[in-house]
Amino acid sequence: MIFLEPLALFLLPAPALLWLYLRGRLKANRAWRAEWAASSPRLEFLRPWLIGAAALFLVLALARPAWDPREASSSGMGQDAVFLVDVSRSMDTVDIDGSSRLVAVKRALLDLSSELSGDRAALVAFAGTTVVKCPLTGDLAFFRQAVQLLDTSSASRGGTLLGDALREVEKDFGSDGKDGRKISLWVFTDGGDQESFPAEAARELGKAGVSLRIWGVGSLAGGAVPERGVSSALNAELLSGVAAAAADGAYFGVDKPLWRLGTEYRLRHRALSRSGGSVTIWHEGAWWLLWPALACVLLEMSLGLDFGRKRRPK
After folding, report:
1. Disulfide check for 91: which of 22, 24, 53, 102 has CB 3.0–4.6 Å away?
2. Residue 96 forms beta bridges with which residues?
3. pLDDT tens profile 199-241
4. Using CA atoms, how far apart are residues 82 and 219, in angstroms rounded to an integer?
5. Are 29 and 10 in contact (CB under 8 A)?
6. CA dist 82 → 127, 157, 186, 267, 314 (Å)
7. Which domains does the chain have, with CATH numbers?
8. Once rounded to an integer, what is the mean pLDDT over residues 278-302?
9. Where are the beta strands (DSSP E) in the chain?
10. What is the separation, in whole angstroms, between the first and last Cα of the chain?
11. How far apart are CA 162 and CA 202, in angstroms?
């Protein structure tokens, strides 16, 4: 038998300390009752033992005892998708069907999340800096929550450094495909780069085997950036050039509305990214330890004892 969470065993002193505390309270109550000639409830001495035993069972359950391991093969189809979202101030420009560019991207990602089953997804925000908001995970609820929390304050510094963001993604996620799962990078930006050499960064991503999909967000006519007194338009020429620099790159412009993200994702899903291996399955005994813990608590409650504030008998 082994413990799958052995660090929980460091909590083993806690039941003993709890027993000592309750034992001391019991002695204090007995002294008080002797002073006031009050009667003691029957089986009062059991309370420290019952609570201590319940705590011990809970600690052992947290440690997850397991036995009888067996190997089972596993395989799956999927890819690792990293979604890189521009959160610079220009993304607040309202020029997509009455919505701001960032709101439109968030809506598209939330709609897409229902189709990510079997894939791992990560969310990265960038402006003048690059911030990982959600690491690669199959927990799509956590991914959706991270998307919902995106705003133009998600990156600590303003500006738009697309090249730096691409290099940061390569550094953080480029080696995560070693198990056979392929990395697919989806970028959502209006293209307002500030000389960060994104084409060179895209070329390095291609060499690393990362597929690059860039979605140009915004209109060619552009619009006013709120509270900035400037206008911003989609830089389609820059973004298409960045996508072309990658070995496996694609650019989606104004002819591809964001509501088509799900369709394009399915069409470009790297279905050959099969991951396989073996997993060890154990028989776990945590649930069996919870039952005696619950029984100890219920039995202690049935004693009707109260170690709270002492009251003078009438």
Report:
1. 102
2. 99
3. 999 999 988 888 999 999 999 999 999 888 889 999 999 999 9
4. 24
5. no
6. 16, 21, 6, 17, 71
7. 2-64+285-302 (no CATH), 75-276 (3.40.50.410)
8. 83
9. 2-3, 65-77, 79-86, 94-96, 99-100, 120-126, 130-137, 182-189, 211-216, 223-225, 230-232, 249-252, 274-284
10. 56
11. 10
SS3 77: strand
- DSSP structure string for 235-289: -HHHHHHHHHHSTTEEEE-TTS-GGGHHHHHHHT--TT-EEEEEEEEEEE-HHHH
Query: How confident is the model at residue 155, as a pLDDT?
Result: 87
DSSP reduced 3-state for 94: strand
CA distance 1 to 15: 22
Structure tokens at 64: 């997850």
215-234 burial, b at 16+ Cβ within 10 Å, e below that, comes to bbbbbeebbebeeeeeebbb
Q: What is the pLDDT of residues 7-43, one digit of tens each?
A: 989 999 999 999 899 888 888 877 766 666 555 566 7
- CB neighbours (10 Å) of residue 144? 20
How far is residue 251's CA from residue 191's CA, in Å, rounded to a whole number?
A: 12
Q: pTM for the full model?
A: 0.63
Cα gap 121→82, rounded to integer Å: 6
pLDDT at residue 175 in the model = 58
